[in-house]
Design goal:
three-stranded antiparallel beta sheet; 39% helix; 11 strands; Rossmann fold; 12 helices; alpha/beta
Length: 272
């Protein structure tokens, strides 16, 4: 049996599915994954001219000191994520869940809301770094977040936003409810509640045959990898690591050195 056949067998024999996804999951939908400075500047040539890398752009300081610069980056991403359609891999996963009646949970470091868009249930998703589709106060004046319905326009010559959303409570600048680098002002309550739901899901499903499908989670921001490593040691649990570059994993877990969409499509073709 090759690795794809093994993966198909594991999925068919599972009762529980945990999908863990990193930036690589979005690549097949056409989203940039910001891998390395070159990857980031290829997606955002203007920042190369400004001499700013991903870590510097994804920094909460801009929303206090220069919100037009901060919202230039996030305003562009907001529009990009809103118009991006999840690739077929999302739907393949969701079809397996329905077909095999799997108890499931999604854990993602992505802030793009793509799993919700593909139909996964809101209360079965844990967004470890928050979501671009919610806003919070920059201070924050209150521990509150609200849905992001703003339309941000960005001047792509300067990567500066033309309009800045405001806190609905105090009128100060509003920022995305995303955990950024060196971020002490993130309102974490929504993610914290998602985490609590995920932990009780793990508790209730303990011992049941489970498959963890990890897709496109690298070691640069290793939150998702740590979680997979923790789940590797659960009884009756197999981890399927799908990653074109950082694919190694110990047996009996499976390593598939391939992009998410290609790997899921191949496995799906073997599930009859
Ligand atoms: Zn406020």
């Amino acid at each position: 049996m090759n690795v794809y056949q093994k993966a198909a067998e594991i999925i068919k024999n599972s009762k529980v599915m945990i999908i863990t996804a990193g930036a690589g999951m979005g690549v097949d939908s056409g989203l940039p994954d910001f891998r390395g400075e070159k990857g980031f500047w290829k997606a955002y040539p203007m920042y190369e001219r400004l001499g700013l890398n991903f870590y510097e752009c994804a920094n909460p300081v801009h929303f206090r000191k220069d919100p037009e610069l901060g919202w230039g980056f996030y305003g562009h991403r907001l529009e990009l994520y809103r118009k991006t359609e999840p690739h077929r891999g999302f739907y393949i996963l969701f079809e397996w869940i329905k077909r095999f009646n799997l108890n499931y949970f999604v854990v993602t470091s992505n802030v793009d809301g793509q799993f919700q868009k593909a139909g996964f249930e809101e209360d079965r998703i844990y967004e470890v770094h928050g979501s671009i589709h919610f806003l919070q106060c920059v201070k924050p004046c209150l521990n509150e977040i609200w849905e992001n319905r703003e339309k941000i326009t960005v001047d792509y010559e300067t990567m500066r936003a033309r309009n800045i959303p405001r806190c609905k409570y105090c009128g100060d600048v509003a920022r995305p409810n995303i955990l950024m680098f060196g971020d002490f002002g993130w309102v974490s309550e929504r993610s914290y509640n998602q985490e609590k739901r995920f932990e009780s899901f793990l508790e209730f499903s303990y011992g049941e045959s489970a498959v963890v499908i990890e897709i496109g989670a690298g070691t640069a921001v290793p939150t998702i990898r740590y979680l997979s490593e923790r789940l590797e040691n659960r009884p009756n649990t197999y981890v399927i690591r799908i990653n074109p570059r950082e694919y190694s994993i110990f047996e009996p877990h499976l390593s598939i050195p391939e992009s998410g969409l290609k790997a899921l499509t191949k496995i799906d073709s073997l599930i009859d």
